[in-house]
Amino acid sequence: xxxxxxxxxxxxxxxxxxxxxxxxxxxxxxxxxxxxxxxxxxxxxxxxxxxxxxxxxxxxxxxxxxxxxxxxxxxxxxxxxxxxxxxxxxxxxxxxxxxxxxxxxxxxxxxxxxxxxxxxxxxxxxxxxxxxxxxxxxxxxxxxxxxxxxxxxxxxxxxxxxxxxxxxxxxxxxxxxxxxxxxxxxxxxxxxxxxxxxxxxxxxxxxxxxxxxxxxxxxxxxxxxxxxxxxxxxxxxxxxxxxxxxxxxxxxxxxxxxxxxxxxxxxxxxxxxxxxxxxxxxxxxxxxxxxxxxxxxxxxxxxxxxxxxxxxxxxxxxxxxxxxxxxxx
Length: 329
Ligand code: UT7
Prior knowledge:
Blueprint: E1 3-11, E2 16-18, H1 19-23, H2 30-37, E3 41-43, H3 51-66, E4 75-79, H4 90-98, E5 105-108, H5 114-127, E6 134-140, E7 160-168, E8 178-186, E9 194-195, H6 207-211, E10 218-219, H7 221-243, E11 252-255, H8 260-270, H9 281-284, H10 291-301, E12 310-317, E13 321-328
The structure holds oxa(dethia)-CoA.
């Protein structure tokens, strides 16, 4: 049994932080950030918003778009590295906030690849008949785990959530909506290149940890950049192969929005036309696991992505973990 996406939704906080705002906090400039990343501004959650609020907001919109009652939901997967609490999972809070009692709800941690990981898991649950109405959410409240004195990281990220509802294929004729292929990978040898060194059980928070900001995101940007271009290109090729289609049959590349230069290089290596490459990094920055479903939903809602379109999604981040998913909407 194949899975298909039944509805999409997203949630972005109202508050905008521009590059000029950040240039007042660290030694950087709007010009540098735009040229090196493509970002002009990002959304920042105010103190009243929690990760689970954004996740629930996106999930409710996806359920509404799918025409699915929350009480029908039989699986919730939240992909996040910025959950409300170390325990319990954010998915259990989302379960309560969307009113979906009695379904299994759990989080997965695959950073910027989280959404394609979650979709791959949901696809397997649907394929084996273990779920019929799965809500998959990518959500991040990164602004609370960034070091706002580190110009190498604080310029890049933003907050937000995106969600999809996944169910069994309603029609199995050729050209019908379906998850056509997914591919996920991990290379733990690069774990130190993108890490929050402290705050877990390996190194609990102490006064020294706080003074050194070791409980905040640390990234060797160049290390990640180099592998991102190579690995995103290869994983996309694997998803295409699994789906049995060629790149010229893809309508849209809906990639993780890590950096516009990464995106341009991946698109060029894949040989996909620039007008098929969707972006929103200029407005929302890098929202890690939330970026693919936010971008997907924005373009579904404006009518750019239409029913029947073929969409190639890919993401790479901390781990490093990466993956791709090819869907027909
Ligand atoms: O989504 C999760 C996975 N993450 C990624 O995919 C991120 C991948 N990496 C990147 O996007 C890029 O590496 C960054 C945007 C983070 C950094 O861009 P870069 O072109 O790789 O810059 P760099 O780190 O090589 O630094 C180049 C120069 C350095 O100065 P010197 O040593 O050449 O004098 C940095 O100190 O730019 C300097 N620099 C800055 N200057 C102004 C670094 N950050 C900034 C800044 N403003 N914000």
